[in-house]
Design a protein that fits this description.
Elements (H helix, E strand, L loop, with lengths): L1 H27 L2 H5 L3 H7 L5 E3 L3 E4 L3 E2 L5 E7 L4 E8 L6 E6 L7 E6 L5 E9 L2 E11 L6
Parallel strand pairs: 1-9, 3-9
Antiparallel strand pairs: 2-4, 4-7, 5-6, 5-8, 8-9
Length: about 150
């Protein structure tokens, strides 16, 4: 019986160690921002201030997406000290698609695939220090991807 008790204690401790990072991720998750329908609501929930249009943000996305379910987007920020990049799409069921936070020294570049419900601008907002910068790219969606 002592062996079974020992195994229960060890397996419980291992389970607690595995679940701890999941709890940390859940604490960071901004549910209100990701559930916002309008871009302004998502920005408010992320506490994004007034943004300035910038040519130092590159958005590579197709001009026309055959299928809105898979739209590849590549984003690069040449803005010094980029801390975060948010990707938003106005004509989606929820506006905030992704929010990436970069550690010191991380290259602010990413490639991701997003779903788009309809033709819309893909808006990228970059946080650097206490300033916010933005760029947009219009993507024409030929087949709805968020059905």
């Amino acid at each position: 019986m002592q062996r079974r008790d020992f195994l229960k204690i060890v397996s419980g401790a291992l389970l607690a160690l595995i679940l701890q990072p999941i709890g940390v991720l859940a604490a960071v998750w901004n549910k209100a921002a990701f559930e916002a329908v309008k871009i302004n609501d998502a920005k408010n929930n992320l506490t994004i201030g007034q943004e300035t249009p910038s040519k130092d943000i590159d958005i590579v996305a197709p001009d026309r997406a055959e299928n809105g379910a898979i739209v590849q987007v590549e984003i690069t920020s040449r803005i010094p000290n980029t801390e975060a990049i948010s990707v938003l799409v106005e004509n989606n069921p929820t506006a905030l698609i992704a929010h990436f936070v970069f550690s010191n020294g991380a290259l602010p570049q990413l490639v991701t695939r997003i779903k788009m419900a309809d033709t819309s601008d893909v808006k990228v907002i970059v946080k650097a220090g206490n300033a916010y910068f933005s760029a947009t790219k219009n993507v024409v969606v030929l087949e709805n991807g968020c059905g």
